[in-house]
Amino acid sequence: MGDLFDDSLQAYIRANSNYDEDVIDRICNEDKLQKLHTLVRNTVLLSECSATDVNTKKQLDKRIKELQNELQLTPAKVTKVKTVTEKKGKTIVTEVETIETVTTVSNSIADYERRFKEVANLDGDLTIYPLDQNNPDHHLQVKTNKEKSDAHGEVFTPLWLVDKMVGQAQLKTGNKDRTTLDLCAGYGQFSIRLMRAKCNAVKSFNKSHIEKFLTETHHFAEFQLSSCYKLLYIFGANINLFIGDARELPKLKDESKGVWVYSDADSKWLDITQSVKPFIESKDDYTNDTEIEFTQLVEKLKDTKNEIL
């Protein structure tokens, strides 16, 4: 009976939406088929709902959004279409809402790319991989701050060149558990392009894979505190970030996770995860003020005798 019931749900889903097979297979494997069925049914009901039934529309819309988040699906798009008709010499304008059914797995990498473009002041399509060196529209590059460049030798690699290097490293597919390090990470341009390469190469690369990549196998190393704050804002408070001179990285213990800072005074690495994580998680937006606050916090923590884990 269970198989017949599941087949019935899948038949309804296929008849009332245009989901990819990969999406349905993924959700079946996660034992969430009934939730997908409910989502599709609520979307259909919303499309049929009377424009005057405001309360029902609100309830359906709320439930749809909840299910979309649980199933990691892109939100349905509501499009308002205006039509103009003539009747007895009068112009009548009517507005109709049409629902475009959700179709694909939520590409949560888009959130990381949006934040990266925000702090890097970039305007371009980061969904393309690899970027073409010969296409002027693909010449996306983080602008170098002259003051920082003079003080620290900071320069940013053009993203089309980053893509070439990622391709040569053959990190897109296979070797899923290979440990990677974004050395002198800057704003994380190598990391963001590596994530995009993986996403475009592997259809099943979803939110859970991204989180595993960022927290378990990938690492960032950066010296400048302002850039470190940008990395935490873009990639989240749970990343592995080593703040300090890269030449001191060999002093880190194996399997070190979280946020660490190198104390020149003590000549050792300090685990500051528990202090930094709440600060980052409490900030929703990127501002210069929060970046300054972060810098002051880390400078203070470097002078504190922390327990080395």
Number of strands: 7
Shape: elongated
Structural class: alpha/beta
Low-pLDDT segments: 76-82, 96-107
Strand content: 5-15%
Largest sheet: 5 strands, mixed
Order of helices and strands: HHHHEEHHHEHHEHEEEHH
Distance between the termini: 53 Å
The number of helical elements comes to 12
Rg calc = 24 Å
State the strand order across the main sheet: 3-4-5-6-7
Average the pLDDT over all residues and give the rounded result: 79
Kindly state the percentage of residues in helix. Answer: 40-55%
Structure description:
- This protein is α/β, with parallel strands linked by helices.
- The chain folds into two domains: 2-100, no CATH class; 109-302, no CATH class.
- The protein has twelve helices and seven strands.
- It has helices at residues 2-16, 21-29, 33-48, 54-71, 109-120, 146-152, 159-169, 189-201, 207-217, 225-235, 273-281, 288-302; strands spanning 77-87, 90-100, 180-183, 218-222, 241-243, 259-263, 268-271.
- It has a five-stranded mixed sheet with strand order 3-4-5-6-7. The protein has a two-stranded antiparallel ribbon with strand order 1-2.
- β6 and β7 form a beta hairpin.
- α7 (159-169) packs across α8, α10 (225-235) crosses α12 and α11 runs antiparallel to α12.
- The chain is elongated, with a radius of gyration of 24 Å.
- 24% of the residues are buried.
- Mean pLDDT is 79; it is low at 76-82 and 96-107.
